[in-house]
Structures are given as C-alpha cells and as structure tokens.
Amino acid sequence: xxxxxxxxxxxxxxxxxxxxxxxxxxxxxxxxxxxxxxxxxxxxxxxxxxxxxxxxxxxxxxxxxxxxxxxxxxxxxxxxxxxxxxxxxxxxxxxxxxxxxxxxxxxxxxxxxxxxxxxxxxxxxxxxxxxxxxxxxxxxxxxxxxxxxxxxxxxxxxxxxxxxxxxxxxxxxxxxxxxxxxxxxxxxxxxxxxxxxxxxxxxxxxxxxxxxxxxxxxxxxxxxxxxxxxxxxxxxxxxxxxxxxxxxxxxxxxxxxxxxxxxxxxxxxxxxxxxxxxxxxxxxxxxxxxxxxxxxxxxxxxxxxxxxxxxxxxxxxxxxxxxxxxxxxxxxxxxxxxxxxxxxxxxxxxxxxxxxxxxxxxxxxxxxxxxxxxxxxxxxxxxxxxxxxxxxxxxxxxxxxxxxxxxxxxxxxxxxxxxxxxxxxxxxxxxxxxxxxxxxxxxx
Length: 444
Description:
This protein is α+β, with helices and mostly antiparallel strands. It contains 9 helices and 11 strands.
C-alpha cells in the first residue's frame, strides 16, 4: 500500500507540472529572436514590418567637459557621450514567457544600427569609442552609447572678446536615409541635459556652460528632406585672465603716457619714456595677434582698444618730437644770435683801442702833433666810448632775448598745452565708451 501511495503521488505531481514551462535562459531568448546565429537580414535591413513606416531614432548628447576653443581655427573641442535609441520591430518578446527578462545585451554587429553622424564633426577617427554591444528591450527598443573627444566647427563671434558668449550647434542626422525612413528625436529636453551636464562636468577651462537647447529641423537634400536634431550649446567666456593680462596693462601704459607730459622737456627724458611705452604696447599687440583670427569680418573690441591706445601714444610721441625740435631750434637760434652779438661787440670795441693807441703815440711824440692834448678831454672821450659799448651790449642782449629766448619756445609751450587738452579729452571719451559697452554686455 505504501508503494502504491508513492506511485500515485508521483503521477499527481507529474500531471500538475505537465504544462509548458517558461524559458528563463538568455539562450532561449536569443533563439526566439533568431540571434543565436549570424542573421544578416537583421543587420542590413531597417527593422520595420511596413517599409512606409519610419524608424524613430532618439539621440541624447551629454556634455562632460569643454576642453578647448580655438579662435583662429574656429573649432570647439569637447568630451561628449551620446546615447542613441531606436525601435526594432523584429526584436520583441513577451517578458512573461521568459521569466520576466526585460532586456538582453547582444553584440552590436548582430543588429541594424542607424548611420547617424554629426555634421560639424572634424575629429580624428581614433577619438571615438563606440560600444561593441547594444541593449535590446522586450518592447523592441534598442539602445547603445558612444563617447568621443569631439571637435566641431563653430562660427565664433569675437566682437565682444573677451566678454563674449558663443553659441555652437551640434547637428545629428542620417545622411543616407530621408525623413520618411529615419525620423530623429530626443528623449530629454535641453534644460534637463543642462542640469545633468552641470553636475557631471569635470572641466570647463576658461568657458562656462550656460544652457543647452534642442531644435528639431529638416535639411533639404535634393528632393528628399533629412530629419535632424540640433543641440545648441551656449557658453560664456571667463574674462578675468584677459582683463589682468591685456586690458589693465594697456590702461596702465596709457596713464603713464599721460603722466609723461609732466616731465620737463629740456632734460631729454620725455621722448625716450614715450617710445618705451609705445614699444610695450606693441608687445601686447603681438600677444593679442596670436589669439584672434585674421579672417574676422569685424575687429574685436579689444583689438580696437589696443589699436586706439597705440594710436594715442603714437601721436603723443610725434608731438613730443615736434616740441623737442622747437625747443632745440629755439636754443640754436639763441646761440647763433649770441655769437653774432659777440662778434659785433668785438668789432665795435676795436675803435676805442685804436684811439687809445693814437693817444699814446701823440704823448710819446709831442713834436708831431699840431694841437696840444687836454687830459680832461681825453677822460671825457674814454667815458663816452665806454657808455657806447655798454649801450651796444644791452642792445645785443635784448636782441638775444627777443630772438632766441621766446619765439620757438613759446610756440612749443602752446602746442604742448593744446595737444595735452585734446589728448586728455579724447582718452576720457574713448575709455568711457569702451568700458560702458563692455559693462553693458557683461551684465546683460
């Protein structure tokens, strides 16, 4: 009886479990999806039951860092991760039949992958890492990811450099499939991607990410439009380094040039000081030339700032040369007039000497003189000659003061005063305009 009971129990258990059991292995799932062997049909054709229905492809780009912005080449280098998801209508299953398996990971070479590329990409081929596997979900969604050191072209607007804000586009599209075959989209919106990028961003260099926007557009390629998704990345430059290295030194050199007007011209140090300031500004212009592109349609404001200061100091040097020349000319004329006065004085002083010699001769030989000489009259004659010489000397000195001590020097002083007034007014107006424009755009 005991053996019969055991036999009945085994038969009852066998009858209870006689129904179909779910397959809980990945191998059974891959056999169901026909991915256990090389199935080339799944890799070469778009996975749709009806060819008129487009395949929706969602691309999410995560910005991890802004590595470099090259103003001369007009490129932006960044580190991005790209998550791409699309629908595969041939690769679906009922998860309850496979013990609730939600997804399976298979080699990327076993399924069809959209040929989505970046229009602005100029990176090297070795800078991209593509995942060798894809993730298949039970509802037919397929996802994969790739990371890339992405270098893209970007038209940089450097008008407000270094207080500029740049907006660069990164466009994803399928060049081989039209909008009726591949329709582009994105899972997340721009604000959520911006918040995520701010949390995970490792380095930004001299740039700060402001926001990311997503725009869906259509690109006309002949008769067939192409669907595209455009990521507009807006970033702001951190200007403090350029303020310290360029703007402040140029302003300080300009102040030194203004202060050089108070150096006395006769010492000869004013002109050499101004030339030194001009050479210092030239060095800063060379540094700026290495940073800015030569093909810019409009000169950046900092270039106008440097050129204007260079022009101000250049005109100041020319004015110093003119004033120095006038002062030297005044001194030359004074020395020339003094030499001519001394020569005339020597010529006029020769007459009394001859008269005195004649008087001595008359005293030595009184028998040759017809008229006797009176000593008192001789003293009067010498006194008159001395007064005449003194009068001539005074006239010569007055002529020197009139010709060499005032004319050119007064002209130089007038030119220096007028130029300094205009120079100072021009500097104040120019700096007020430049700083007001920069401050306006910075706070805007």
